Amino acid sequence: MPASARSSPMAINLSPSHSMFKKSRGKSSSSQSPSDAASYLSAVSQADARSRASSNGKFSSTSTPALSLSSSVTSSSEDTVLRTGEDESNHDGLAFPATPPTSEQVFTTVHTEFGHCSNEGYRYTSQHMASEPIEAIHERDPPYYILLSTYVSYLILICLGHVRDFIGKRLKAKAYRELRPHSGYAPLTSDFDSFYTRRLKQRMAECFNQPVTGVAGRTIMLVDRTSDDQNASYRLLGTRTRVLNISSYNYLGFAQGKGGCADAVEEGIRRYGVSTCGSRLEGGSSDLHTTAEALVAKFVGKEDAIIASMGFATNSTMIPALVGKGCLIISDELNHASIRFGVRLSGASVRMFKHNDMKALEALLREVISQGQPRTHRPWKKILLIVEGLYSMEGTMVNLPEVIKLKQRYKFNLFIDEAHSIGALGPNGRGVVDYFGIDPKHVDILMGTFTKSFGAAGGYIAGSKTLISHLRLRSHSGPYAEAMTPPVLVQILASMASIMGVSPASLTSSSHTTLRPVASNESSQALMTSHPGPAPASMIPNWMTLPPALSDGSEGKNRLRRLAFNARYLHRGLDKLGFITYGHPSSPIVPLLLFNPGKMCMFHRMMLRRKTPIIVVVVAYPATPLVTSRVRFCVSASHTKEDIDIVLRACDEVGDWLDLKHGIPAAERWTVQKITERSGELVHPSA
Amino acid sequence: MDSPSSENLFTFLSYSLANFQAAFFRIPGSAVLTRYVKSSHQDDPGRTLLEVILALFVIRTLLQSRTRTDRSGGKHFIQFSDKEIDDLVDEWTPEPLDPPLTEQQEADLAAIPVIAGPTGPKPKLMNTGKPCVNLASLNFAGLAGNEHIQQRAIETMRKYGVGSCGPSGFYGTIDVHTELEQRISDFLGTESSVLYAQGFSTICSVIPAFCKRSDIIIADRGVNFAIQKGLQISRSTIRWYDHNDLSSLESVLESVAKEMKRRRSQKHARKFIVTEGLFEQDGAMVDLPKLVELKEKYKFRLILDETLSFGSIGRTGRGLTELYNVPAARVDMIIGSLAIGLCSSGGFCAGSLTATSHQRHNALSFVFSASLPALLAVSALEGINLLVNTPSILNNLQENVRAARAILDRLDCVTIPSHSASPVIHIHLKTNSTSLHPSTAVVSTKPSNPSSVLPRDAANWTWDAETEEQILQEVVEDALAQGVLITKAKRLRGQELVDPRPSIRLALTSALSKKDTEKAVGVVRSSLIKVLGKRR
């Protein structure tokens, strides 16, 4: 798609009629003090003058020299640019954009929630390129001294822990009371089971369960805390810190308290209330569920879909309804806990294969089909292959073209968990299927969650109409689990519709016949031909009015392209800095390997204590293998290129301090300066 | 022809051997080793042989895959050639993943009630387009559609957005979660509590977080599906006692205590009793004071599922602990749902700080799931405030329950297993012969086998699930035609450990006036009489 077709989607000037909630919005922003606006305006004009003086050629296409104060205050720009009700300075560089908006650009998002970035150069399309290898990028090993010191670190930690336990149990019996039998009760947790938690995780507990407040968007507010007793308990300090958030699953940046989706949710709560009170089969179904399920099915390109109120429960309650005794599940060794939970409940046999290794998968398939069920050698009733589209700890993408080839040969059923990939991958945001340009009809079951890209909660399973009907009646969720709540449903509808774009019903049919003259005699076929097309207006509730930028799909497209750029930029940038990273370069999940357990806490702390504080997620055993402790970045469309620059700069400095650059030899590395200047070159695969 | 090549081979071998020897002796300490081997061989040649075999065995064990048993090469493995495998692959036809629906399934699907617009005491139905009186949705305290809660939810959404975008561990712990956890534990009177994102998934995870393979769980035979799944995942030893029969529990406790004394290996096993406060299956209520007494006597820990009773039972909705005036701290873990009692979403487990912090690290659906959306947490919080500040809500509910029971109890074509204070009323059909279902409190002479989930008298159950489901569905449809929405208790027949008897489930609400309730229950009553009368 040519970029010129939608030269500056974020710059579409909103007509006053765009929001039917104008009144309420005005009310909410009225608390804002005028001094904020004034100080910001002066900042804007100063920065604008600076940028004009430096006459940066890169921005010449978008920045207009004439910035009149009056024009930048028009319409809703002031209440979207500024944080409401909070007196905030820009000392950390997070509150206001580095490049001030010009009179032409009216941003409809709050910068701290969804960063302002109008440079069309910082866009990319997430799509599989023939030149790119599908196989997982080979995992680079660190020098031996790193491995050795990692093992030694764990050894010291374990020995120290045992020594402390041994002494503690004898000298401080009171503190260890919970670990020993007392008054006839066995300890609730055995000291062996909890050893890892107490002696290893506890030491770096400050990296986890950090309380936050506000929107988990581009930035987030930390509720500051401190511990006086080595992380046994925390004391809140009563202060808050705004930090750059590169940790939340907010791929498309729909975690927003302002904007079209939030307006729709407000209207939804007013119309539908907060809950539908009950399970789907026992009076908890509402027309919103039906609408949302139809839209999800349309979005992913399947006949029907079913929604569950929790992402974890989507897998754990629906997989048992798909397979049972006499069936076999083939599962990737790194599949998520919810899949394993569901698999265990199903009673089916399970075999695992090495992560993303298609050769191992084929060998396993040949073995299990030829051998049949254990002992009896009867053929398997069904074989279900469960893989994830994008693996949340590795950032690897399933080798889907190869899996589909195997599927055609070996006739198994395919279940793809797109928890992280839906919305985050593919030129149209339709997940890993879209990324590889594969027709969704080749996949039997598409599962995904709304927590990540859609800024909502819960999950779905999409498949053929009969299959979904079976799930409605037979999955644990149907009769026993609570139905999804209306606010969440509306958020899904609004965000999904803005990714797809909404087309008036009459317009779609004509445009399709002209664009793709495919003879279709069946309704399901017709659906396939229009995939991935816009959502017909009849599929979203008639009371939901999205602002034009959302309903024409331009902003959705823009978000997808921003995410794709940010993901590749950070990934390739870290590589070029010399770090060891895992995963696919287009994946919005970017793991950076740390190895030594001691570096996890340090990395976390050093990133947090910077001038622009950054929060990161550090993960270690048991979520990863013992040696490969890592930092996991989750890039979002809400990040601007400057935000990624900040992260890269921070990583560069911290990486030097902590000796983390073991990926490529020093001679091949780029400096941060070079990386930030030549970002386009890095992102495009020809580089 | 042959000899030169073999000669070459020998030269090569001797050359490499010499090289190897030289390299070996260059390793520091190698001389000591050689000397040791030499001298030991001299003393006892047999020992050398033994040691060599031992070394080979060690190498073999190390090289073997650790998961050999489930890999190829097991006892039942058959060796096939590639060609044979190809043929077998061609031959194999899997069962379809989506077999066509049966007629019954189609009918069931079509009968699912869908509400158009907001739910509440008198919602509009999609199917008919007409308003009806709602005795199906779980809206005990009438919080659905509450203006104040909606306003707070909107304010929260404006401040926090909708999704939390992360699990609790990774920046998904929002300050309102902590606030709600604090509020719940204050409300119940426990030390702490922990929030889950879904009510159903709460207990499924709580049980396996504590109960491991070597532990012992004693559970009621009538526990709900979520508990059954939790027990399945835990892999603990499970003993069953008759549904809501505490004397049966006592005898099982007695036998387990004896058994544990006998077996020393079980000395450190954790012991749990898992049961429900208000049973989801039939609305029976457990005698909590007696239960607590028993569990303290036998030193068991009690996991009490108050999914239905939290927010609906007790003066202010604290559940059974409030109704029976038992301090919540004496129950080790209380599981509740925010979706049912508070008309929001999510669940919680309240208990000691040790218990909740253990869950924060080990409960699967807590660790691996995104946390509850902030607006739902705030809605639940406001729900608790409303319950505390307006005790009349649950008072009205109890009045409605009494009114409904007064109408239904006089009906002699049905039996009602539910407790007289339960806002959920299950209606069973009365069988002609004397029923032996445990809920009818016919005590069989011999106790049931504690290791089997089936009670002793299961063989004597005379009801036919399929016909009863059909009759009840007719009642449901008849009531709906007269403007009252009720539902059968929906079950996953075949997936439950013991299929409970089909029933109609009425869920009363304080949002309806006593008069409306009486009128609606009267409709249900006349439908029951009409349909059952026709059958006879």
TrEMBL record, chain A:
Pathway: Sphingolipid metabolism; Lipid metabolism; sphingolipid metabolism. It comes from the Eukaryota. Its EC number is 2.3.1.50. PROSITE patterns: AA_TRANSFER_CLASS_2. Residues 242-495, 552-649 form the Aminotransferase class I/classII large domain. Residues 1-102 are annotated as: Disordered. Residues 80-91 have a biased composition (Basic and acidic residues). It is an enzyme of class 2 (transferase). Its cofactor is pyridoxal 5'-phosphate. GO terms for molecular function: pyridoxal phosphate binding; serine C-palmitoyltransferase activity. It catalyses: L-serine + hexadecanoyl-CoA + H(+) = 3-oxosphinganine + CO2 + CoA. It is found in: Endoplasmic reticulum; Membrane. InterPro entries: Aminotrans_II_pyridoxalP_BS (IPR001917), Aminotransferase_I/II_large (IPR004839), AON_synthase_class-II (IPR050087), PyrdxlP-dep_Trfase (IPR015424), PyrdxlP-dep_Trfase_major (IPR015421), PyrdxlP-dep_Trfase_small (IPR015422). Keywords: Acyltransferase, Endoplasmic reticulum, Lipid metabolism, Membrane, Pyridoxal phosphate, Sphingolipid metabolism, Transferase, Transmembrane, Transmembrane helix. It holds the Pfam family Aminotran_1_2. GO terms for cellular component: endoplasmic reticulum; membrane; serine palmitoyltransferase complex. Its main location: endoplasmic reticulum. Belongs to the class-II pyridoxal-phosphate-dependent aminotransferase family. This is serine C-palmitoyltransferase. It comes from Pterulicium gracile.
UniProtKB/TrEMBL annotation, chain B:
GO terms for biological process: ceramide biosynthetic process; sphingosine biosynthetic process. Its cofactor is pyridoxal 5'-phosphate. Signal peptide: none annotated. Pathway: Lipid metabolism; sphingolipid metabolism; Sphingolipid metabolism. Keywords: Acyltransferase, Lipid metabolism, Pyridoxal phosphate, Sphingolipid metabolism, Transferase. It holds the Pfam family Aminotran_1_2. GO terms for molecular function: pyridoxal phosphate binding; serine C-palmitoyltransferase activity. It is an enzyme of class 2 (transferase). One of its GO terms (cellular component) is membrane. Residues 131-458 form the Aminotransferase class I/classII large domain. Its EC number is 2.3.1.50. Coiled coil: none annotated. Belongs to the class-II pyridoxal-phosphate-dependent aminotransferase family. This is serine C-palmitoyltransferase. It comes from Pterulicium gracile. The lineage of its organism: Eukaryota, Fungi, Dikarya, Basidiomycota, Agaricomycotina.
